[in-house]
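Workshop exercise sheet. Pairs work together: one partner reads the sequence aloud, the other fills in the structure field after running the prediction. Swap roles for the next sheet.
Pair: D.N. / O.F.
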Amino acid sequence: MGSVTDAAPTVVPKEGTDESLLNKKVKVVFVLGGPGSGKGTQCADIVKHFGYTHLSAGDLLRAEIKSGSENGNMIQNMITEGKIVPSEVTVKLLQRAMAESENDKFLIDGFPRNEENRAAFEKVTKIVPEFVLFFDCSEGEMERRLLNRNQGRVDDNIETIRKRFKVFVESSLPVIEYYNSKGKVRKIDAGKPIEEVFEAVKNIFSATD
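Structure field:
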C-alpha cells in the first residue's frame, strides 16, 4: 500500500471518547453495496476467515435505542419524527464499539451512507479506511434476490426496493467515487454465486492482511 494514509492510523479520541482508544492501532474496511448485494453473507465469512469484527451502523443504532439510554431515547425520537440521525451520533457509536472491542480490525457495514457520514467519520475518528469493499451488483439481480428471500421483511416489496436502490445510487455512490479517486476502492462482481464472490473477497484480504 505504501503511503502514509494507508498505514493503520492511531485513533485520536475527541473529548468524552473512551480512553481505551488512545494509542490503539485500528484497521477499518468500509463495506458498501446496494440492498441485496450480499454484504451481510460475505461479512460473516470475512469475520470467520480473517478475524475482523463486523460493525453495522444500523445494528448499533437499534441497540442504543433498546438500551433505553438518554442517547437511545434521543435517537428514537428523531426516527419517530422522521428526522435523520446526525452523522456524529452514528460515528460516536461506531467509535465506542471499536474502543470497547479487543480487536483492532473492523468491517463497517453499510456506512458511510453518504458524503456527510464519510466526512464526519474521518473528522471525529481521524481514521482513514484501509480500503472500501464495494459489492457491485445489477439492480435486476438485487431486486430478484430481495423478492425471493424469505426473511419476512415488510420492506421487501417492489416499490420500497426501488426506493432503496434510488437512495443508494444518490447517496452512497458519491462516497464510492470519492474513495475511488483515492485508489481505495476494491470492486467485487457481486452478481456471481456466493462461493465465487467470496473467492474474490479472499484474494483482496489475503493481499492486504
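Discussion prompt: Confidence is low (pLDDT under 50) at residues 1-20. What would you look at next?
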